[in-house]
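Why does residue order matter? Because the sequence determines the fold. Keep that principle in mind as you read this record.
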Amino acid sequence: MSKSILENRPQLEAAVMQVAEVAGYLWEKGWAERNGGNITINITEYVDDEIRQLPAISEVKSIGTTLPNIKGCYFYCKGTGKRMRDLARWPMANGSVIRILDDCASYVIIADEPVMPTSELPSHLSMHDYLIGSGSCYKATLHTHPIELVAMSHNPKMLEKDVMGKLLWSMIPETLAFAPLGLGIVPYELPGSVKLAEATLELIKDYDVVMWEKHGICAVGTDIMDAFDQADVLNKAATIYLRAKSMGFEPTGMTDEAMKEVQDVFNLPKKRPC
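Structure:
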């Protein structure tokens, strides 16, 4: 059996094992049915000269677009068709490390096995390209299917700009504190489509979490746990809202004045902090 790329690289191993931990949470929450959901993290900072010399273990694969800011970067990606519950146990058998080639439009797999990355790789890499180009410190992208948030997206009223985000903020102060940029909404588009990717990329400039109507969310963060936390706090608020509704009343939510007080006291950012 060949040596894993993680061996004797504690920082890289920690980053990949954090992905495995989050994958387990997604499965336990019911947010990752079958092979649902995708994760991609930028691991370039953990790459040493030995890794840079590793040969490709796949053919050259096209990204489908040109992304100049990710030239020469390395990413760990969940494999296409792979289950989060399996990735949680065996991350390098259910994901792979890819190298972006100098044409900025293609990549090769370099470790550990020739597991094809997520089918939504172009969307994920487009977000990473934007994040790098904007000087962001965010290095992780997550797509998953939070049950309560998806349920709320079936209400047309919730799809109006910032309506759902403001409502979720009002359910519990922690939502505003830990997801201060709110929730962007993309009207329904075919999963994996160019239109969906373009709409998401536009909204990710202003929001850390984007809701795909009747589908799921896409979140970015400093690492994969940060991205997960953003989705988790928003879905907690959605759960509070729906449980109040199930009890037969419309929850009042925090007032605008109360939410402004939280923003002011905790000096919450109105734009991405890095």
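The chain has a mean pLDDT of 95.
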